[in-house]
Amino acid sequence: MVEDLRPDVVSFHFGLPAPALVERVKRTGAKVLSSATTVAEAQWLEARGVDAVIAMGVEAGGHRGNFLTHDMAAQVGTFALVPRIVDAVSVPVIAAGGIADRRGVLAAFALGAQAAQVGTAYLLTPEANISAVHRQALTSAETTAVTNLFTGRPARGVVNRLMAELGPLSDLAPAFPTAGGAIAPLRKAAEAAGRGDFSPLWAGQAFRLARPMSSADLTRMLAGVA
């Protein structure tokens, strides 16, 4: 697909695929990005030819991009991670995690990042294709946590019934990516009743800073041209 469509950028998560596949991607002319949650992961990615490193702080929503360590205690915040990775690699660094408004973008730039990556703030735009219970959680919940219950890999989302009752990180979770099958019937029934008790409600720690607006208006605000 990449060879057919030739996008400008191809971004990976959980490290990189096999070197031969990365080379095929690079031969299309695409810039290759990947996420790092530690300095060691950033250096590993640079050594394998990425064009930029996404410094993913522990605040970020969704799946953690970790691949050299699965110890969540070793994960650090975006604004501690970004300057360390900036000092450790020679490729551009993109800050990700806990950035939902212009203040976060400016802070990332001040720490040496050359770009900022924003995810959760866009989930409240009308263009975002998320479930009604997910959208409701983003406007009413207060807390997120890193959990492995929904997929078997650590990911940050809004704390709901499943996470509260089993504990966000549990040895009970089946291995990635099979965990979702075990709770699928509960999720289906709860969502039909308008509840997100058993749904993965991915969100970063700064989700309460997000405001409903169009994706175009949000982009202009983040860029400081609103």
What can you see in these coordinates?
This protein starts with a helix and ends with a helix. The mean pLDDT is 96. The radius of gyration is 18 Å and the shape is globular. It contains 9 helices and 8 strands. The protein has 2 domains: 2-118, Aldolase class I (TIM Barrel); 120-226, no CATH class. The protein has 226 residues and is α/β, with parallel strands linked by helices.
Please specify the SSE layout and strand pairing.
Elements: H1 2-5, E1 9-12, H2 19-27, E2 31-36, H3 39-47, E3 52-56, E4 62-63, H4 78-88, E5 93-96, H5 102-110, E6 115-117, H6 132-140, E7 144-147, E8 155-158, H7 161-166, H8 179-192, H9 215-223
Parallel strand pairs: 1-2, 2-3, 3-5, 5-6
Antiparallel strand pairs: 4-8, 7-8
